[in-house]
Amino acid sequence: MAKVYPDQKEPTFSPCTSYGPHTYTLWMKSLVFNSNGCTVYDSNGLVVYRVDNYDTKGRRDVNLLDLRGRVLCTIHKRLLGFGRWDVYRSSDDSSNSENQEKPWFQVKRCHEMMTGKLTCQISMVECQKYCIEKIGAKTAFRIVNTDDGDIVAHAKQKHSSSGVILGSDVLTLDVEGGIDHSLVMAFVTVFGLICGRM
């Protein structure tokens, strides 16, 4: 019997393990009807990451998923009044409880009183430190490696190819090389939760 759909080659780009520069489109909506979340598309228009909160906005536990629905990390809001989130990396090995005991990284919300600028400090288990800075009053933000000051990713409102500005819930995210893209997406997810967008 002939196959209706021929076997397709697996894409050479794997977003979860990629370390090269890449541009994504963030749609601050869930693919699930009448649900909260975020959907991330690659430069070919394929879904690569998603967050689905279903009917609850601002949940205490949120999962970042890949295209196939595999949980990449779980984000847990720790202290309601102090704005701290712990992010746990998921493991394919369910017997490995170490990943569930130690956070992959922690995020603390900071608000500079003098400038009114919203920032988030990120502390990694490996002693790396990052910062997410909101840029202006719009939805733009950037992720900075605080050790060397390099911008590892930045997001801004998306423009169509003809120059039309799309809605405030559609962003372009440019990720530089040398960083795990799933880590950047986890940062973006936490920042979306902090800003009340998911």
Walk me through the structure.
By secondary structure, this protein is mainly beta. 9% of the residues lie in helices and 40% in strands. It is built from two helices and twelve strands, in the order ββββββαββββββα. The protein has a twelve-stranded antiparallel β-barrel with strand order 1-2-3-4-5-6-7-8-9-10-11-12. The radius of gyration is 17 Å and the shape is globular. Residues 1-15 have low confidence and may be disordered. This is Translation initiation factor eIF-2B subunit alpha. Keywords: Initiation factor, Protein biosynthesis. One of its GO terms (molecular function) is translation initiation factor activity.
Topology:
Layout: E1 22-27, E2 36-41, E3 47-54, E4 61-66, E5 71-79, E6 84-89, H1 98-101, E7 105-111, E8 118-124, E9 129-134, E10 141-145, E11 151-157, E12 170-175, H2 181-194
Antiparallel strand pairs: 1-2, 1-12, 2-3, 3-4, 4-5, 5-6, 6-7, 7-8, 8-9, 9-10, 10-11, 11-12
Strand adjacency order, main sheet: 1-2-3-4-5-6-7-8-9-10-11-12
Taken together, the total number of domains comes to 1
Q: What is the CATH homology-level superfamily?
A: LURP1-related
The number of helical runs is 2
H and E string? EEEEEEHEEEEEEH
Radius of gyration: 17 Å
Proper CATH architecture: Beta Barrel
Strand content is 35-45%
What CATH calls the topology is Porin
The CATH class name reads Mainly Beta
